[in-house]
């Protein structure tokens, strides 16, 4: 499981984990959200799996971008930029300062613990 692997490798190292869940896949296929308020999935994310002091926040990106907004590549870049903006907002809300280090990536993309230390 990608989330568990990432949490284990980075356990106790992050101040904040900001996850953005979308209602569509990258191919614009509709999908149900899994980490909504009260869900078991959200409870697991916020159970301390990233560390006892790590804030875990899930926000949602609801895609209403249609084909009229551009090519598939342009739409993908727009969605990615909007989602990254949401991550920055969460970081700021959790006290991130200009000299802090942030890592933006898919949950299945992570550094080894040795590199992070």
Explain what you see.
35% of the residues lie in helices and 12% in strands. The relative contact order is 0.23. It has 117 residues and is an alpha+beta fold.
Features:
two-stranded parallel sheet; 2 strands; alpha+beta; single chain
N/C terminus separation: 23 Å
Question: How large, in whole angstroms, is the Cα Rg?
Answer: 15 Å
Strand content: 5-15%
- Average predicted confidence as pLDDT: 87
> How many H/I helical runs?
4
Question: Which strand order does the major sheet show?
Answer: 1-2
Q: Please estimate the helix content.
A: 25-40%
Largest sheet, strands/sense/barrel: 2 strands, parallel
Chain-wise SSE layout:
Layout: H1 2-10, E1 16-22, H2 40-45, E2 55-61, H3 72-93, H4 113-116
Parallel strand pairs: 1-2
Quickly describe the structure.
This protein has 117 residues and is α+β, with helices and mostly antiparallel strands. It is built from 4 helices and 2 strands.
């Amino acid at each position: 499981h990608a989330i568990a692997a990432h949490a284990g490798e980075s356990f106790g190292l992050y101040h904040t984990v900001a996850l953005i869940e979308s209602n569509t896949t990258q191919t614009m296929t509709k999908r149900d959200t899994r980490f909504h308020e009260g869900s078991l999935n959200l409870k697991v994310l916020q159970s301390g799996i990233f560390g006892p002091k790590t804030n875990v926040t899930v926000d949602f990106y609801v895609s209403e971008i249609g084909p009229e907004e551009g090519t598939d590549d342009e739409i993908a870049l727009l969605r990615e930029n909007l989602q990254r903006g949401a991550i920055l907002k969460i970081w700021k809300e959790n006290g991130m300062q200009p000299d802090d280090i942030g890592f933006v990536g898919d949950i299945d993309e992570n550094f080894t613990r040795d590199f992070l230390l």
